[in-house]
Every structure is written in C-alpha cells, then in structure tokens.
C-alpha cells in the first residue's frame, strides 16, 4: 500500500541544548485563564471551570520566523503565553501527579483574528476562524523540565517594536499547570507530543505589517516573529 500523495511533514519544535526535535501531536489552548485578561474582555474573572479550543499542529511558527498577516481580518491580536509540552499521555490524570506528564516548557503566541472571533461569539459559533488559521501558533524552543523543574512563578512579558505591551507573572494563572492538565485529561485522552497554551494576561492588542513581536517567559525562553 502507498499513499495517494506524500503525507505532510510532522510539525516539530527544537529542544534546547539538544539535537532532538519534539513532534507535535495536538495544540490545546486555555481560554481566559488570567483574571485581568478576563476583565479586559468583558467577562467575570471568578474561577469558573476552564474551557479549551484547539489549533492545528501545522499552525506552528518557529522563533525567528515570520507571521504573515492573515486574510479576511483587519484586527489581529497577539496573546503571550506559557506553553506546556507533554511527554506522557493519559486520561483522568490526578492533579497531584499531573506534572509527571510534562516534558518541558516554552514561550508561545496565540495569534488571534479578533474581529472574526468576536463575530463568531456574537452568533454563538465556534472560534476556529479566529484562532486556528495558518501561522497562528508561534512557539519557541522547548526547555526540558529535567533541566529547570516545574516553575510555578516567573515573569511573562511581550514587546512590540521594543515597547512592552503585556507584563505579568505565571503565578497569576487562574488554573495552574497541574490543574489544567488534570481537567483537560478528563475531556480528552492526552498524548505525548501535545502542547497546552495556558492562557494570556491583560494587554492584548493589535499588530500591523512590519511589527516585530518578542515574547518572554522568565527562566524558560522567548518567541520572536516578524509580522509580514
């Protein structure tokens, strides 16, 4: 048996200080996981159950690459996030053992066609057109948890053209990393190779062609892309 056409390459991320590549299986994203961002988007920041959406693995852009401004939108936003890379899968994972499933961490961007997302919200429709478009998941290299442990605090910030636009700390997550993994594993059978974008703090905003975006997570890494 042969394929009718050549299958696409496996999306993958570099692993810091190694020659290895991390093959990406799925990308899960947590919505409204910082109280200040929930407020700026007009929602109650109380600790409601987390909710999730997905991006396709082939929407990844490596750090140093380009983010082509997408069609059908005039209001594209950056959202700076801590990314969790799973090294072991599972179903109904207990909170107290969830970190055993983490291979490492990275800095990532959830790029969003905010106008299309907003229109979908008003009509009660899914968010894919606003969230899962091509090049919408830039991600930096992964640093292994075996090298840095499992940070529960650390500054997270983003600059556009050298100006700080987002500035927070991952200790401000409403649902922390082990809680998020545990809850998500009750909804999906998680696999090694899954990425979890854990949410963004306040300060999201629009980008334009020619902008340079640079995001950082203290002790973990950075992501840098040029808007073209």
Properties at a glance:
globular; five-stranded mixed beta sheet; alpha+beta; six-stranded mixed beta sheet
Outline the structure in words.
This protein is an alpha+beta fold and 228 residues long. Helix content is 14%, strand content 33%. The chain contains five helices and 18 strands.
Write a concise synopsis of the structure shown:
With 228 residues, the chain is α+β, with helices and mostly antiparallel strands.
Summarize the SSE layout with pairings.
Layout: E1 12-14, E2 21-23, E3 27-30, H1 35-40, E4 52-55, E5 60-62, E6 66-67, E7 76-78, E8 80-86, E9 102-109, E10 112-113, H2 114-122, H3 128-131, E11 137-139, E12 143-144, H4 145-148, E13 155-160, E14 163-169, H5 177-185, E15 195-197, E16 205-206, E17 212-217, E18 221-227
Parallel strand pairs: 3-15, 5-11, 6-18
Antiparallel strand pairs: 1-2, 3-4, 7-10, 7-16, 8-9, 8-15, 9-12, 13-14, 13-17, 17-18
Q: Which radius of gyration do the C-alpha atoms yield? A: 17 Å
Average pLDDT, rounded to a whole number, is: 95
The shape, in one word, is globular
| SSE string, helices as H and strands as E | EEEHEEEEEEEHHEEHEEHEEEE
Main sheet, how many strands, which sense, barrel?
6 strands, mixed
Straight-line distance between termini: 41 Å
* % residues in beta strands: 25-35%
Question: How many individual β-strands?
Answer: 18
**Number of H/I helices:** 5
Strands across the major sheet, in which order? 4-3-15-8-9-12
């Amino acid at each position: 048996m042969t394929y009718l056409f050549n299958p696409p390459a496996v999306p993958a991320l570099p692993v810091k200080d190694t020659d290895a590549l991390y093959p990406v299986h799925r990308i899960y994203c947590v919505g409204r996981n910082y109280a200040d961002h929930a407020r700026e988007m007009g929602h109650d920041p109380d600790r409601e159950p987390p909710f999730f959406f997905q991006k396709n693995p082939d929407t990844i852009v490596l750090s140093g690459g380009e983010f082509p401004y997408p069609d059908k939108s005039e209001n594209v936003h950056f959202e700076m996030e801590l990314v969790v890379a799973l090294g072991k899968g599972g179903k109904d994972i207990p909170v107290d053992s969830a970190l055993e499933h983490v291979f490492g961490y990275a800095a990532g961007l959830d790029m969003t066609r905010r106008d299309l997302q907003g229109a979908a919200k008003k009509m009660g429709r899914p968010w894919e057109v606003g969230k899962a478009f091509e090049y919408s998941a830039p991600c930096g290299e992964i640093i292994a948890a075996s090298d840095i442990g499992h940070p529960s605090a650390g500054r997270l910030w983003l600059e556009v053209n050298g100006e700080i636009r987002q500035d927070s700390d991952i200790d401000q997550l409403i649902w922390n990393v082990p809680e998020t993994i545990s809850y998500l594993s009750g909804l999906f059978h998680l696999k090694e190779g899954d990425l979890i974008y854990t949410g963004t703090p306040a300060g999201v905003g629009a980008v334009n062609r020619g902008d340079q975006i640079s995001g950082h997570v203290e002790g973990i890494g950075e992501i840098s892309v040029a808007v073209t």
